[in-house]
Fold:
Amino acid sequence: MSTLLKFYRPLFSIPYSTRMVQLGTQRFHSLFKPKRRIRCVSTSSHSQPSIGVGGEWRSPESRELWLQNTISRKKEVFRPKTEGKVGMYVCGVTAYDLSHIGHARVYVTFDVLYRYLRHLGYQVTYVRNFTDVDDKIIARAKELGEDPISLSRRYCEEFSRDMVYLHCLPPSAEPRVSDHMPQILDMIKQIIENGYAYSVDGDVYFSVEKFPDYGRLSGRKLEDNRAGERVAVDSRKKHPADFALWKTAKEGEPFWDSPWGPGRPGWHIECSAMSAAYLGYSFDIHGGGMDLVFPHHENEIAQSCAVCNHSNISYWIHNGFVTVDSEKMSKSLGNFFTIRQVIDLYHPLALRLFLLGTHYQSPINYSDVQLESASDRIFYIYQTLHDCESALSQHDGVTLKDTIPPDTVNSINNFYNVFVTSMSDDLHTPVVLAALSDPLKTINDLLHTRKGKKQELRIESLAAFGKILRNVLSTLGLMPESYSEILQQLRDKALKRAKLTEDQVLQKIDERTAARKNMEYERSDIIRKHLATVGIALMDSPDGTTWRPAVPLAIQEQQVSIT
Structure:
């Protein structure tokens, strides 16, 4: 048996921590064993404790985090292999086109998990790959007359831009298949040597019958399996479910030299090789969309265990589909919306809020109605916090008292307890978003009602509410750099959906004001209703009339009829 090469040691002696973004949050008050024994190098960790606000060292909170584990089919308490440190690998995109909102859901989900683990004080090594060598990439490149690697590189860059728009933090590492060919080749050699794979005319296949636990993740029986996705039926296989580790190059396709002849890797081997390279064979979390459970993740387990009998991933986590008319959204079905198409009309953080409004495991149905509601809600959140910030700015330089009223303390503690309890219960983000209502309402009461303006320690209460809401929004990835900037961006998107300019809206406001002065109330109502129909709400006050984005009237009536 050959010795495993050094690449199987986790690569994170590299200074990845410099890329991690501090969230600035602060607290209130052996899976499978092949029959043959195989030598492997176990995982090691090079991470450091995280630092919170003010530079203090933070350790994980005592509240237990529970996660739904696909392999055990139950919710389990999260116990990292190394105290205070987490290794997480999430399967990335196959880069041959712009990403759709099904992709957005995957990476927003795991960004929230990444952020929450860090909020709890864990040092997280987060690895998310790019597939830049694949049949679909080659086919698209041929269609466009472009080099496959260049095409894939371009779409990797586009994907990274989408992630910035959606406020997804950069992972610790983003390896690409084309940069890890030596590791992939070494892993295939080891699998063959250990008796789990065979070569046929330059192709290499994994023999699923040699791995007794095949199907444990997905629950599928071997006799029910057929050739997997992205794999053609081949009579040369020993079993129909055998999958390719290495494919012989076809004329005009990119290839790499190998002991079996020129070719390229199969789809599944890449993630086994790259996760082992960066995290070792034993790490905490492996994630992706539900469509990856079989065959991709099932095959990953088989490959990794065929190389290393200590291979063990503690938690397999999968998010549900985005659907359109109750059918899974996918490029192959042609029923998808790209992230760019959606954020052309809706703010990226409205899309993020929409995705977080359903528990990550449940299917979520995409519709304009849902996006309009999310856009309206997020405008309300940021307008409230902007008003709070403006009120506090009037007291700059004034020393605030270090106490707040008992009602404020109770309200903040209750809200924070809901946040921690819900997030620790398998990332129940919809409950957290619903819980925002009470502190936001209290802020508005303190700012705008006669009773609220008279409340003792009013400014101290506003400061405390603003702080806890910033804290929670940061953990959800919903904290903008500037409230005023994002409010203007949300207005601009609303104008685009309404097919109006701001000057046109202001002209309508002037016309309505003149109509009211002339007691032409019917005309005034027509103007208001016309604007409401396209999602522009008018707000009258002693200082005049202003406008804000709103759910279009037709959609509001549709929501009422549904309820």
Q: What stands out?
A: Residues 24 and 52 are 6 Å apart (CA to CA).
